[in-house]
Amino acid sequence: MLQDAGALVLFSGGQDSTVCLAWALQRYARVETIGFDYGQRHRVELIQREKVLSRLRTFGDLGSHLGDDRVLELPELGRLSETSLTRDVAIAMSEAGLPTTFVPGRNLLFLTYAAALAYRRDIRALIGGMCETDFSGYPDCRNATIQALSHAISLGMDVSFDIYTPLMRIDKAATWALAHDIGGEDLVNLIVEDTHTCYLGDRQHRHDWGYGCGTCPACELRANGWRTWRQRQHRHA
Asked: Which alpha helices (DSSP H) does 28-105 contain, by range?
């Protein structure tokens, strides 16, 4: 049964956030989306997210619950960050032991801004694609971080917010499987053709699992997850 209360999904246009959006559309009668333009190097995701939303609206009952979308501009985040996602910097491990793709404070800011919008829209459920199984070492993707932030936001706004992270405990293979469970091959095809994950913004090279350079950490995770999922499918066929 659908929950009458609304949900706000942090939607980038990537694989993970698309699966989370489909997950929310199964559960909530009203689902809105929010995206962020922070000067990301792979800003093609901002174009792709519109295509994904447009296609999802055609998904029968699933798409009928999809409501308003907003994109917030956070240029200062990009200006403050010397990272591979906001500068022409090589993707590598930093001296601090974190990948150079880590944008400090990104998820903390995203969820805080999302909560501010949700407060005005009378929405109390925030949904994000954070995952600590395939999380590339990002500390703001850990469950402990998300739960602490949920508590802080609820205290600071004096209303109870819940932050749901459907992918927190699963890997990319299970993420592909979840997409198939929700929307079958149609949703899998949408993810392959229209979502964007590649850190380098490559939309020229198409693979079985979608578009991307094929060598950045995001592409490798997506590709490995695809192969593992398809192999499991074949074993159980």
From this structure: 44-56, 60-63, 75-80
